[in-house]
Amino acid sequence: MNNLCTDIGFKSVNKKGEQLCGDHIEIVEQNENSLVLVLADGLGSGVKACILSTLTSKIISTMIANNLSVEECVSTIAATLPVCEKRGVAYSTFTIIRITNNSEAEIIQYDNPHVIMLRGGDNYEYPRTSMEIGGKTIYKSKLQLETNDVFIAMSDGAIYAGVGKTLNFGWQRDSIIDFMVGNYDSKMSAKGISQLLLDECNDLYGGEPGDDTTVAAVKIRQRIPVSLMIGPPSNPQDLKKMQTLFFAKEGKHIVCGGTTSKLASEYLGKPVVPCLDYFDPDIPPIAKIEGIDLVTEGVVTMTKVLEYADSYLNGSISISDLSMKKDGASRIAQMLFEEATDISFYVGRAVNPAHQNPALPINFNVKMQLIDEVSKKLKAMGKNISVSYF
Amino acid sequence: MNVYVCVGSSCHLRGSYKIIELMKENIEKNHLEDKVNLSAAFCLGKCTTGVTIKVDDEVVCGVSPENFSEIFGKYVMEKVQA
Fold first, then answer.
1. Do A284 and B12 touch (CB under 8 A)?
2. Which of A15, A39, A236, A268 is the most exposed place for a label (fewest CB within 10 A)?
């Protein structure tokens, strides 16, 4: 076990006029530190391609995750895939990226554009050995991981982007490498990386992709723990314990809630200094306490964070949208959605008498559900979440 | 003189934003920038009767846009001029 972790992001656009994507991505997480990602591109487009790529990625990911050899995977696929009537072949290309213990990567590629690897922001030509399995040429690589290594897998829709429209021959893998190196930002998440490349491809296609296009990014990052404390404990005697555990946690600290921050300021012996600036009339201002990275109001701000999490997951807002805003909820969102890899919630279950007013849209149950919902969204973003109640 | 406007959850929902805007406006209108120091405060502990403000050590509850000018006159103007 090291202090690295894997961040994954992927996205597809469909060929113009198609409702189904002929590319498919399958991820099998074997445990916290090991996973298998398969990107498959089925022959043709539409339903047929979708079935081929779904079967291929599902079969390969399951078999590789169970330590079966590539040879066996390939022969299983050859024997399983339905043969196309028109073309007389059963065919789906694939790329496999397997991360073991967050320390070693194995890349197996068949007929997709080769995986681009960035190390320290520069293109890294990793060694590849070719082998023949059932008449197919398959490339295998194995390498040791370093912090900020980025692997970018794509379907051929990416390198054909713009053919006959904006570019004569599409943009080649080399141009994609130049583009990714030029736009490299060590803070960018895997989701951000895949989005960046896919948007560029889609632009080159003039918004009308000539082929299904899929980009998957795997980023090896340093773990960044963030702890968030909200609400005083239901039993005042647990306060000390809760605060000691919270402040003992390494990484960044966020405190939410008026009473909670007052208690934290007493614990640290530093005053709460509220800011007067309402950056967004809907979200209460933040405050500052020396020694705490971010201090905000509680339930109203968290409700907004949940809203942002929804929009972030469905792609209607991006991290750069959030980083332009300065309100408490956007700041929490940036720290949790982008920076953090491991998030610990310290939730106090004291009932705030002021909130039990039917005229107010907040009450105790809402607060508890809020944390549940936010943790679910964060899990969907691939974060490790722990929640402790007091 | 120090004036604090509570921006805790309850007061926020009852309109702290509006009260802060009114405060800023009125302080400017009456040229009190040098005399009144306006800041936000986290929960002042009077959640059920917000919006709560604190003028020096005196806590005033139930401030709303409707009674704002009355409260501003009584707690800020009179004291500043006294």
1. yes
2. A236
